[in-house]
Amino acid sequence: MRQRSLIAITAALAAGALTLTACGSRDSGGKGSDSKGGTTVVIGVDAPLTGDLSAIGLGIKNSVDLAVKQANKQKVVDGVTFKMEPLDDQAQPSSGQQNASKLVSESDVLGVVGPLNSSVAESMQKVFDDAKLVEVSPANTNPALTQGANWQTKKARAYKAYFRTATTDAIQGPFAAQYVYGKAKKKKVFVIDDKKTYGAGLAATFTDEFKKLGGTVAGTEHINPDTKDYSAVATKVKNSGADVVYYGGEYPQAGPLSKQIKAAGANIPVVGGDAIYDPTYIKLAGAASNGDLATSVGAPLDQLPSAKDFLANYKAGGYNEEYGAYGGYAYDSAWAIIQAVKQVVSNGKVPSDARSKITAAMQNVSFDGVTGKVSFDEFGDTTNKQLTVYSVTGGAWKTVTSGTYNGG
Amino acid sequence: MNELPQQLVNGLLLGSMYGLVAIGYTMVYGIVQLINFAHGEIFMTGAFGALTVYAYVLPDGTSMWVALPLMLIGGIIVAVLVAVGAERFAYRPLRGAPRLAPLITAIGLSLALQQAVWAWYPDAKSARTFPQINGGPFHIGNVTIQTGDIFLVVAAPISMAFLAYFVMKTRTGRGMQATAQDPDTAKLMGVNTDRIIVIAFALGAAFAAVGGVADGLKYGQIDFRMGFILGLKAFTAAVLGGIGNIYGAMIGGLALGVAETLATAYIADLPGMEKFGSQSWADVWAFVLLILVLLFRPQGLLGERVADRA
Q: Is it the case that residue A331 has pLDDT exceeding 70?
């Protein structure tokens, strides 16, 4: 009997341990007003700085850091020194919400860049909106975040304080479907997603458009992002006779998944969204990833004249990590906040209701950013609808075609 | 095309890995009635030990035929050192304390080991690639076995055979059996129980390290959190097979792996079950199996040898 109860206690503890590991947070402090005389305005950053997605998250943090340094150097806002406060959300909605509460409670935080994940954004939106603190995401692509849960039928903006510089999956999924069906001539798709806000949403918009174009769906699967044995799914893909796989999800799972699908004997490309467009994907998928495709928001930075300075400054900044898929957008998000602050703050005087004024000012921000024109529509979405298809060629992501989605 | 044989092989391969790690849980439990929750992390340190040998000790481009045995030895040494260290400094001081104390220590140790690798192992903040064996996959009829899985196919039965021989035939093995049955009497009969406990930890760690190397070869990447979920699965496998029973650990592992794989492959085809068949439900079905076994056969599939004490 004693043994049995020990096992019961152990099982309970195991469940507890599972939850605990999900909410550890590593705060890196580093705030305070060290500027002489002037006012310090803090721009918060929320992104996964540790864990699987840290490669992308650190790129976001570094890019915001660069924007803040440039703004201070150019003295963009008189009498104001910008500071960055980065918080780690480990790609967990619960951590994101804690970070949001923390940022809201610090009165000198006047804007936040982040988060990376749509699911994390969902948990943060209300906290920021209640405090009228503006949040600009460089990476969220789920349409519901700006246009409401029923965005397909009735668009309605729920949170006035939420903006984003990345375009949505309402555009990204169909854009991928048009390429896969029209240009790559693949007619039979196997759709897999990770059930998360981003992945499931993207897979759904892709599937709708793919069917509309005349393609067939050979099968669907949902995977558990916590495991990495997808052999059973890979065998199903192989036996389904599909000629392409669409994966809605992120690169830590997409890489091993692509590898295992190819290993199972299905020599068909895996196509995904912006969350698999990362060098780590190729590292994880190995040589088998050759020919895999990804769509990503915007145009490739190294081909945009507007990004030349950013690329040079980023290199000169001596950051250890790549700017990643969202560096340019993070930089532009930070600049959007800086521009909004400029409209509200004069001579270093921050008005008492600065947060709501900055949120209101954000709606009218318009400038030429690294990724193109930065401005927001009535939902807080970017007006920049550019997307690009990339393919893995010789162990690196190469641009295939760039364009804007039309129709739908 | 019939995919059942392939899915069974997928499940058996996954299950062999669970089994290799489950042996450590079950052996330590059989002898000291401690559920060593840090065992998943011992599996992880074993994999990192093997990677260390390949990446930092051997010259670049060493053939895997030479490298693999050395990596295996490296992994085993690291895992055994960690496990023996844990036994000496974390568990032994608590021997005789209420059962909950070492259990909580084990969970703390598990987090500490994860964070230590995260903080100090070079580039371990995200996944690190693990060296691969070259060569194409092998086909037996309709079934494909990956090159990376060949190691598992060979290593799991050899490990089991070795363990059976060790426990049944050697003097130390009989000492282990005696200690498992009744530590006090065993001590009176001249068995050095402290030494037996250390050996149980070390043996379990060695099998976990073999599992860690197999995991690296199978998936091509390892990371600091790899031991956590796999450790929970292996613990489940040990309970499923009858915790304390070393054959049970292997059988439980195989049953769990096959159950997960078949659930992913076929549950969705059953009428009315479309929603519950995807891979994201595999864990749920694995635990349903566990609950069913515990309901109808509380001692686990093969029964728990230590239960007849008390």
A: yes
Are B10 and A6 an interchain contact pair (Cβ–Cβ within 8 Å)? no
Taking CB atoms and an 8 Å limit, are B37 and A17 in contact across chains?
yes
Same domain as A266, residue A359: no
Q: Check CB contact under 8 Å for B265 and A221.
A: no
* Amino acid at site B140: I
How many domains does chain A contain in total?
A: 2
Size of interface A-B (CB pairs under 8 A): 122
Which site among B8, B10, B111 would you substitute to test the A interface, given the most A Cβ atoms closer than 10 Å to its Cβ?
A: B10
Averaged pLDDT, A215-237: 93
Do A96 and A144 sit in the same domain of this protein? yes
pTM: 0.82
Give the chain B residue whose CA is nearest to the CA of A196. Answer: B280
Partners of A203 on chain B (C-beta within 8 Å) are: none
Contacts B112 to A, Cβ<8 Å: none
| Residue A1 to chain B, least CA–CA distance (Å) | 9
DSSP A67-96: HHHHHHHTT-STTEEEEEEEEE-TT-HHHH
Any domain includes A54: yes
Whether the per-residue pLDDT at A141 is higher than 60: the answer is: yes
- Under the banding of pLDDT at 50, 70 and 90, the label for residue A270 is very high
The token pair that represents A335 in the structure block? 């600049």
So what's the pLDDT on residue A103?
96
Range in A164-173, B84-93, B281-290 with the lowest mean pLDDT? B281-290
Are residues B3 and A226, on separate chains, in Cβ contact within 8 Å? no
Nearest-CA distance A344 → chain B (Å) = 40
pLDDT band at A22 (very low <50, low <70, confident <90, very high): very low
CA distances (Å), origin A380, targets A146, A162, B276: 6, 6, 37
Verify that A173 and A213 share a domain, yes or no: yes
Nearest CB to B14; choose among A6, A229, A255: A229
* Residue A252 included in any domain: yes
Helix (H, G, I), strand (E, B) or coil at A110: strand
Q: Which among B14, B137, B221 has CB closest to A263?
A: B137
A379 found inside a domain: no
B38 pLDDT higher than 80: yes
Residue A326 clears pLDDT 80, i.e. is over it? yes
In terms of domains, do A37 and A113 share one? Answer: yes
Does the ipTM exceed 0.85? no
Considering the domain architecture, whether residues A177 and A240 belong to the same structural domain is answered as yes
Among chain A residues, the shortest Cα distance to B8 is held by A232
Looking at per-residue confidence, does B180 or B51 come out higher? Answer: B51
CATH number of residue A222's parent domain: 3.40.50.2300
Q: Are residues A109 and A197 in the same domain?
A: no
- Whether residues A95 and A17 fall in one domain: yes
Contacts of A219 in chain B (CB under 8 A): none
Instruction: Write the pLDDT tens digit of every residue in A196-211.
Output: 889 999 999 999 999 9
pLDDT exceeds cutoff 80 at A391: yes
Of A7, A52, A263, the CB nearest to B239: A7
Spatial contact of A264 and B144, defined as CB atoms under 8 Å apart = yes
Does residue B46 have a pLDDT over 90? yes
Q: How far is B148 from chain A (nearest CA, A)?
A: 10
Q: How far apart are alpha carbons A31 and A85 in whole angstroms?
A: 7
CA Rg value for chain A: 22
State the average pLDDT for chain A: 89
- CA distance linking residue B237 with residue B40, whole number of Å: 13
Is there a contact between A231 and B129 if contact means CB atoms under 8 Å apart? Answer: no
| Long-range contact pairs involving B121-125 (C-beta distance under 8 Å, separation at least 24) | B121/B48, B121/B224, B124/B48, B124/B223, B124/B224, B125/A50, B125/A51, B125/A54, B125/B224
Q: Same domain, yes or no, for A186 and A293? A: yes
Cβ separation of B33 and A3 shorter than 8 Å?
Answer: yes
Per CB-CB distance under 8 Å, the chain B contacts of A255 are 221
Closest CA of chain B from A380, distance in Å: 33
What is the DSSP-derived secondary structure letter of residue A180? I
State the residue range of the domain holding A236. Answer: 169-297+387-403
What is the mean pLDDT of the segment spanning B161-174? 93
* Position A52, amino acid: D
Domain residue extents for chain B: 19-227
